[in-house]
Amino acid sequence: MICLKYLLLTFNLLFWLAGGVVMAVGVWTLVEKSDYISLLNSTFYSASAYILIAAGAIVVFTGIVGCCATLKEMRSLLIVYFFLLLCIFLLEIVAGVLAYIQYQECFPLCQQLDKELQHNLKETMVQKYQQSGEESITSAVDKLQQEFKCCGSNSSSDWSDSVWILTPSNERLVPDSCCKTPSNLCGRRDHPSNIYKVEGGCITKLETFILSQLQILGAVAIGIAFLQLVGMILVCCLYRGLKEESY
Questions:
Q1: Of 4, 44, 133, 188, which has the fewest Cβ atoms less than 10 A away?
Q2: How far, in Å, CA of 149 to CA of 195, rounded?
């Protein structure tokens, strides 16, 4: 019984850490990748981050219930803990399978995601870049093009439709962030040796990034779900031991 209690407490510690990591990923997504979310102009991606935070909070709460049930040796609380683990287990399995199915159906065609990304990203770039009151969008576009080493949504030619590029006082053909070595007014020259022209647009790289994250999240969800099976087995063993002791 003592061994079971310590094993279950160790499991709860790992479970807490997992919940903390999930919450941290959600917060990191909102803080560090919020610029990209604003570029996509879609609630789906921000909702995914909030779901991660909520899931992490539920896991932490479940861990607290598990510790209380283990330390106080309360069979009724152990039952509650078991069903909480079971619900989270089923949700993670479903989420992992759906993420995998979505990845398989999406890659390599990704028609629905492709259309949404292409439309939102290009419209945002050409209409809002370097416009008054859209400083956050401008910063996000510059960060995107530099981080992914790309230029434009589909290609660098997208910038020819930009409101900012078409301004008579503007001397650039593309933003300076398209340059391989950014400097003031380097966007006046759009030769492949100067800008990310042959590397393609940002849409492909951003799409690949999102799909790779989707695949990883699906694999992690299924992996953690099977780890929870160990926790449920330990809960059942402890419950049975406490039941035998009561007789």
A1: 133
A2: 9
pLDDT at 179: 93
Cβ neighbour number for residue 5 with a 10 Å cutoff: 15
H helix or E strand, kind and range, residue 136: helix 135-147
User: Can you tell me whether residue 196 is helix, strand or coil?
Assistant: coil
What is the rounded CA–CA span in Å between residue 107 and residue 84? 34
Q: What would the two tokens of residue 125 be?
A: 């770039």
The sign of the CA dihedral 83, 88, 94, 97 is negative
Give the pair of three-digit tokens for residue 201: 């647009």
Rounded distance between C-alpha atoms, residue 19 and residue 84, angstroms: 14
Low-confidence ranges of the chain (pLDDT < 70): 32-38, 40-49, 92, 95-117, 213-214, 216-218, 220-221, 243-247
For residue 185 the two structure tokens come to 């007014």
Three-class SS state of 179: strand
> Using an 8 Å Cβ cutoff, are 20 and 56 in contact?
yes
Alpha carbon distance 218, 94 (integer Å): 9
- How far is it, in rounded angstroms, from Cα 18 to Cα 152? 38
Please give the C-alpha separations between residue 60 and each of 41, 53, 57, 63, 81, in angstroms, as whole numbers.
31, 11, 5, 5, 12
Q: What does the mean pLDDT of the chain come to?
A: 78
Q: Which residues of 120-136 are buried (b: 16+ CB within 10 A; e: fewer)?
A: bbbebbbebbbeeebee
- pLDDT number for residue 247: 52
Among 209, 201, 114, 217, residue whose Cα is nearest residue 154:
201
